[in-house]
Amino acid sequence: MRTGKCVAAGAEVLSFLAPSPLVGEGWGEGLTNCASPSPQPSPIKGEGVRTKRMLTLTQRLTDNRTSDAQLVLPFELRQKTRLRTVLSTGEEVGLNLERGYILRGGDRLLASDGRVIEVTAALENVSVVASNDPLQLARAAYHLGNRHVSVQIGSGWLRFLRDHVLDDMVRGLGLTVEHDIQPFEPEAGAYSGHSHANILLKAHSHG
Description:
Layout: E1 6-7, E2 32-33, E3 55-61, E4 69-73, H1 75-78, E5 82-86, E6 92-96, E7 108-111, E8 116-121, E9 123-130, H2 134-146, E10 152-154, E11 157-161, H3 164-172, E12 177-183
Parallel strand pairs: 1-2, 3-6, 4-8
Antiparallel strand pairs: 3-7, 5-6, 7-8, 9-11, 9-12, 10-11
């Protein structure tokens, strides 16, 4: 008998020609069953692979509980209240906080699994302006704020995200600009509660 052919369902071999061969005697070697395979039952809902729910951060904590993981973000992303990102542990997490709030380094958030997540300000490329002349620094702050630039103010220095155009402007005021890599925590201006949630140093005159 030729091999490589299939046995049709309801084969035309008459039962009176020969008794059915015993299993293992070699009859039908190389033949395959042409009948459609029996349909398999659908898996019961809930069985098999389970989809893991994403960890979410929806609540700010006001106490200083010990943190279980860190959320490291640059200033641009700390202004967002809806964000999909990754914790220091490598876990994917969804941020869903009240609108208008800016995350600061040291803030603590409650995760959906009960863990405490600490916010950390990421290191960023910044321009630093230092001077012993308060008037010079005030002028620089005014011009930066007039361009809606976020500015961090310290004792005898200003810091803003590195930008060569802004660097040249500040140098034009007679100040020296140096570059560094530091966490960036700009001032919360008088309009920081607006819905657009921008933290701006608005040094406008009110003459």
